[in-house]
Specification:
It is a single chain. Helix 9 links the parallel strand 8 and strand 9. 43% of the residues lie in helices and 18% in strands. By secondary structure, the protein is α/β, with parallel strands linked by helices. The chain starts with a helix and ends with a helix. A five-stranded mixed beta sheet has the order 4-3-5-11-6. Strands 7-10-8-9 form a four-stranded mixed beta sheet. It has a two-stranded antiparallel sheet with strand order 1-2. It folds into three domains: 83 residues, Winged helix-like DNA-binding domain superfamily/Winged helix DNA-binding domain (Arc Repressor Mutant, subunit A, Orthogonal Bundle), CATH 1.10.10; 98 residues, D-Maltodextrin-Binding Protein, domain 2, CATH 3.40.190.10; 86 residues, Periplasmic binding protein-like II (D-Maltodextrin-Binding Protein, domain 2). It comes from Sphingobium xenophagum. This is DNA-binding transcriptional LysR family regulator. Keywords: DNA-binding, Transcription, Transcription regulation. InterPro entries: LysR-type_TF_proteobact-type, LysR_HTH_N, LysR_subst-bd, WH-like_DNA-bd_sf, WH_DNA-bd_sf.
Length: 297
């Protein structure tokens, strides 16, 4: 065996070690990369045999990285990331103008989807696949070219972000519900069923505070994972919901939802287009970014 091949372990062994090092568990590593616990153990043993030293301390049925394992993991992680980036770049070159964009589900359905015909007309060669994602992720680990992020830029470190827009969140309910429950002032909502989006449980306390209402005794109501589920519940008469106005414009225009108080809730959080620092080297990403920024103008 040549000297160069001797020190190049099989990729399965490297992937097994990298996952096991992060989880400090052979079984969880196996679940992540699609191997059995015993197969991961064999791959780790292969590496340890090559290095001639253990990488984990075995404590009963548990494993823990030892000093040699930690040093190896620190050096290995950037190399594996470089392989992922190189492979991803090669796949992009093969795909040409194909893009994969991660988007917040409601944003994708109500803001992006209606605008796709314009994107196709402007860039007919672009083929864009959209997938729903609600939380930040590692672009080096995921097959996405860009993503829609809502929040603050510092919540997703290590990526480039373009500001898109902020939102106005308004209270809405069904017209029939409002007729049966007349509201004269914001304080009257304290006794109403208040619907929330599950990741924004603080929205109602913030709205009441902005309206000058003491809501210390506020009782939490039903929560929904996505805004469009929340909108459907409100339109069905389940109560009053706080929803970004741009997501429910069709319901407002159709009259299936109404705004009892024109008191929008604003915040510093906003929508951003997020992407890796080197993403604009891909002309397809640059074209999609330019289109997005033109749309928000």
């Amino acid at each position: 065996m040549s000297e160069s091949r001797k020190w190049l372990p099989p990729m399965t062994a490297l992937a097994s070690f990298e996952a096991a090092a992060r989880h400090e568990s052979f079984s969880r590593a196996g679940d992540e990369i699609g191997l059995t616990q015993s197969a991961v153990s064999r791959q780790i043993a292969l590496l340890e045999d090559l290095i001639q030293r253990p990488l984990f301390d075995r404590i009963g049925r548990r494993v823990r990285l030892n000093e040699a394992g930690r040093a190896y993991a620190v050096q290995l992680a950037p190399a594996l990331d470089a392989i992922r980036r190189a492979t991803r770049a090669a796949a992009q070159r093969r795909a040409g103008s194909a893009l994969r964009i991660a988007t917040l589900p409601s944003f994708g359905m109500r803001w992006l989807a209606p605008r796709l015909p314009h994107l196709s007309a402007r860039h007919p060669q672009l083929v864009v696949d959209f997938a729903a994602r609600s939380e930040p992720f590692d672009f080096a680990q995921e097959d996405f070219d860009a993503a829609i992020h809502f929040g603050l830029p510092q919540e997703w470190p290590g990526v480039t972000m373009d500001f898109l827009f902020r939102e106005d969140v308004v209270p809405v309910c069904a017209p029939g519900w409002l007729a049966a429950h007349p509201l004269r002032a914001p304080v009257d909502l304290l006794g109403a069923p208040l619907l929330s989006q599950s990741s924004r449980r603080d929205a109602w306390p913030r709205w009441f505070a902005a309206a000058g209402v003491d809501a210390d005794a506020l009782q939490p109501g039903p929560t929904f994972e996505h805004f469009l589920m929340l909108a459907q519940a409100a339109a069905a008469g389940a109560g009053v919901a706080l929803i970004p106005r741009f997501l429910i414009q069709p319901e407002l225009e159709a009259g299936t939802l109404v705004i009892p108080f024109a008191r929008p809730l604003s915040s510093e959080r906003a929508y951003y287009l997020a992407y890796p620092a080197d993403a604009l080297a891909n002309p397809a990403v640059a074209q999609f970014r330019a289109w997005m920024l033109a749309q928000v103008e």
